[in-house]
UniProtKB/TrEMBL annotation:
Transmembrane helix recorded as keyword: yes
This protein's encoding gene: LOC116198199
PROSITE patterns (UniProt xref): TPR (PS50005)
TPR repeats (start-end): 492-525, 526-559, 560-593
Keywords, ordered alphabetically: Membrane, TPR repeat, Transmembrane, Transmembrane helix
Name of the protein described by the UniProt record: Outer envelope protein 64, mitochondrial isoform X1
Segments traversing the membrane: 17-34
Keyword Membrane (UniProt): yes
UniProt domain Amidase: residue ranges: 73-226, 323-459
Amino acid sequence: MSKPVQAVKASMSNPKAWVVIGLTVAGIVILAETHRRRRKGKRRANAIREDFGAFVEKFELLPFPQPPPPALKQPLAGLSFAIKDIFDVKGYVAGFGSSGWAETHEAAGKTAVVVTALLKNGAKCVGKTVMDELAFGMTGENTEYGTPVNPKMPSHIPGGSSSGSAVAVAAELVDFALGTDTTGCVRIPASFCGILGYRPSHGAVSTVGVLPNSPSLDTVGWFARDPSIFCRVGHVLLQLKTIEPRRTRRILFADDLFQLSKVPVPKFKYIVTKTVEKLSGYQPPKHINFGQHIASSVPSLKGFREQSTSHQNGISALKALSSAMLSLQRCEFKTNYEDWVDSVKPRFRPHTTACVQTAISTSTENIKTLYKIRSEMRAALHDLLKEDGILVIPTIADPPLALNMKKRSFAEFYDRALTLLSISSLSGCCQATIPLGNHDDFPISISFIAFHGADKFLLDTVSDMYSSLQEQASIVSSSLPLPDTNGDMDASELLKEKGNAAYKGRQWNKAVNYYSEAIKLNETNATYYCNRAAAYLELGCFRQAEEDCSRAISLDKKNVKAYLRRGAARESLLCYKEALQDFKHALVLEPQNKYASTAENRLRKLLS
């Protein structure tokens, strides 16, 4: 035997040699995998630079042949669109935003009805877009396919679950895009990306060939930058008649819902009021407390409501509405997907896993009550809006969250968002999201809601008002200045006493007026602000109450009532952490204060 062979045999019998060989092989494998991931990451980064990470898959579905002249050109001829990864396209798997889903399902045999309708009307489809897994989520984040980059605020979430479709439109990659809206999946990203978004009346647009999340809440919606394209797409999908009798419009401004918004209420009021003044056929805006209307008109919500004080009655009803919406979504998701989850045991990201587990463990015993709430909500909205009313609300209360925020930061964001989003979802009414520029550098929007089935009426309203709304939004200041006057101290005390008498007589508006006059005469008295805050609380004007209490505290750091009232206002605005801090501060100043102690315990439970 040759010496080299003997040497090899000897070394192979040495255990240390095997360790060295193993480490060498492992090192080669690790280097190869690292290189592969770097190349993949580089490809992904290049893709994001090119298309803002909006697409899961790109392809081309060409429009149907156009009719020869003298026939009219198709309404969507020359336009491009993208679709959420939830629509069937023949020969492609609808991925549902999840590799766990895509790997266990086959390619579609037919294309979704709505996609075919758009192709027939001249538009070209260019690909499928990223979405939250299984359409659970409102941030638009997807760790598997990457989170689409919000063109308006790249370091913040784009909103979801139809995030890729919204980003594709906002980044001008397509003329319009399809999404789905169950609990806000079109409305949120439209608002966060600063574009138009539409949730149609439930059942008005075909969902054949669309993966369901919760059939009683699911709708096919769309995005666009241009109001003309926005309306043309609507006419195609809703199969609307081109001519309809002109109707007078009543604008109903939901004062209590704007209290939840982080944008100053006067800004919204000014924009809407000035716009309406310029248009014919529009009545001056009427101001309503929407929560109180729901509290009195939807009796079946009683089982979902928390115990509340009189001034929190309306907001309590709206919170109950969002709870009912989530319960219905979970029940129907369970019915559709429990067998698949049990048999396949797919892996999801933590948020999706929590949503799926909660849905699968949900009892369906109260499903009839949930359907009853839905019917009562639709009737309540029709009673309020009738055939000529437009309800104006903020689309969402908060600015877009920063990317990769910790889960604890989401709780209040979700609560405030769902309170607003549940209105159309549970009533089935149509809702249009309209961008209004920026506030503090983040995109803002308002929403118009019309009764179920009034889609053409709503689209015509958007077409009427859009340019004037943009004009007013560009010139309005972020807040309206308050008068700055000084006066006689004795007169201000007299006005305060009159305010106190009006308050005791439950004449809240009169009390606010007296306290406001007192403040004009003496702007450094904390009691005047604190007393006016109490009247604002009774009126449900929580944002004004919070501002007055903050002013009172800046003037008097030991004003216990100001902390208590600001805590109550913030709790009503669903700002639980800030409310908890106020009640804690009140307890530091007055350790035996029962109201503060009870409130602190209640908020600790909510936050846990």
